[in-house]
Fold these 2 entries.
Entry 1:
Amino acid sequence: MSRESDPEVITDALTAAIDAFNEEGYGVPTREEAIDADADWKTQLTKACRLLAAVDTIAEQGFYTATIELCFGATERSVEAFALAEGGDEIDDFHDHTTCYDRATDLGLLSAATTRELRQLYAINRTDSYYGGRRPTERQANTMQQLARSIHEHVTNQIREGGVCVCNSRN
């Protein structure tokens, strides 16, 4: 199959998306204001804040798969923020979805038993809810929301330089 046989609507949209990520051709980009880009750890922490805000927005609407996915993302961004702020890690150290759990134990953020369970939760349930054939439930989405929020608050309280979390702002 040649590229010419692909639907034009897809190839045009793909080109536009690539241009957007390369920031080509559309002037000054409009960035998400609530994301703090002063330091990598602030970026990761505020990305977690925004993912949790998105979860709050879609809660009660039956988007269980999206809720679970966003909650795993918020958990990862929160733990990464701690590792970047307090552990001397670099953003490039986080090239997969599970390194953050190892760092949580290494840095004393969470016990080995808890991080092992978080890894298992991710490995078994995130993969299955996202890629597998199971249909996520309301209870799974609600408990993931509580878990992600708890981890985010714990991380926010453990980072010595505070005042970065934007969860309670109206941005």
Note: The chain has six helices and no strands.
Entry 2:
Amino acid sequence: MKDTLTRLKYWYQRASAAGAEYYNAPYRAAIARAKRDEDDLFMLLVFGEMMGIPNPASWYTLELQPLLLERFHDWHKRMGMERSPLDNMRCC
């Protein structure tokens, strides 16, 4: 009995994962694009103060800058800036 329940649970989990994959597949690109846009906006919020954009939450976003430095180069390239827009921070 316990073995049967274990097998049913396993098949139920596999069917659930397959169903989620089937229904999410058409929206995957749109979700990825929305996440990237949201990340770009967050990056602008964090580094905006250094580019001259007033930020009322700059004290809090200052702590996040070291965490986002690895992604900064990709971000400014994606935003159309060939070189780093920050004078005191060169990434390329």
Note: Residues 2-24 form the longest helix (23 residues).
